Amino acid sequence: MSKVSRTPLTARRGGALRGEALAPGDKSISHRALILGAMTVGETRISGLLEAGDILNTAKAMRQFGAEVTRVGVGEWLVWGTGVGGWGQPEADLDFGNSGTGSRLVMGAMATTPISAVFTGDESLRKRPMRRVLEPLTNFGATYEAGAGGLMPVTLHGTDRPICIDYEVTVASAQVKSALLLAALGAPGLTRITQRALTRDHTEHMLRAFGADVRVEPLQDGGERICVMGEVELRPGRIVVPRDPSSAAFLVVAALIVPGSEVFIPGVLLNPRRTGLIETLLQMGADISIADRRESGGEDTGDLLVRHSELRGIEVPPERAPSLIDEYPILAIAAANAGGSTAMRGLEELRLKESDRLLAIVHGLRACGVQVEELEDGMMIHGCSGGLPGGATIGTHMDHRIAMSFLVAGLASRAPVTVDDVSMIATSFPEFEPLMRSVGAQLS
Ligand code: S3P
Q: Which among 2, 62, 131, 358 could bridge 122 via Cys, Cβ 3.0 to 4.6 Å?
């Protein structure tokens, strides 16, 4: 099991942030590229893969199932898979470290293959709910044993006689939906998955790129039904991973709140189901221009130019939550710097991330001198109009996004902000510190 030592870091106010910054590859797409590559016979070439802890753990798991996964250059990876249903029995436990996405997607991908595996992770992952994925997977015929409360370590037994399912996902989770779509590949015939919330759709996009038959029907209530044909032979291909908007978010908000800043962030993924933060910041008065919108690897991308802006508080529509679910911590920092109050609701899922993010944000902002009300399903932040007091040490609770968000807060605070541990940042954004420094951030 993963163990990491604590490394604190302090961010302080300095000059304007300026220059060009390259965000790392998208985490969601990187996981999916490795997993689908491993479910395909033949060579899949991946460019721009995120080389961060979470993804390296998924790569290791794919090797444990028998795929050949090779790094041939910076962000350049080759995967030779063993086909749908072709994964072999892993000899050791699968350790996914901090990654909910890696572990849950892989549970789905192996559920319709007759092998068993033990899934485990670090202290944070071992507190996160797994039944949301495991229970629906039993409908395909898989069985499992989990710890009390459905926690890891989990032993999953894939089935040798999978059946197709018609299932409605009740949680607003792309991970659950994706796990079921990946499991459906091994079941004979058509599987139908219905979801009311429009969560990120990278699995659907990538399945099509690998030659699977995936159809999406919009439903009258705003949800959708995804139909996928099982027992397919996937076609190996070439995946170009766009840059992660959830990582670019830290650069975007830093540029918005540090006076005089102007930062250019090229090639960012702009899938409409991932652009909730940009939409919200624009509504708050942010100066963000998007240029050269283009398609890259089947996904929308574009270049962002972000300039310091006087932000104002707004009410964030709760139905927007799935499209900015990972961005609430950094949105909270933008809201704390804005004039007026920002209300965020519909955030139940935020309590189930790498930490209880709702609580971590509320406590962190209060420690920085910001007035915040914690609501059962969200929070109300009373902004400081650019005058964030700061001067606190923040508990990051093994949560990379809490760590990065409060370091960004420190760049615009009157007194420095220290985060108690930056080691988890490497799970999603190993270049965060040097990249922030390269545009002028004061981190020490
Ligand atoms: C992800 C889905 C989201 C998100 C996570 C990545 C994915 O989780 O928070 O960082 O790649 O499918 P949920 O499915 O739990 O909402």
A: 2
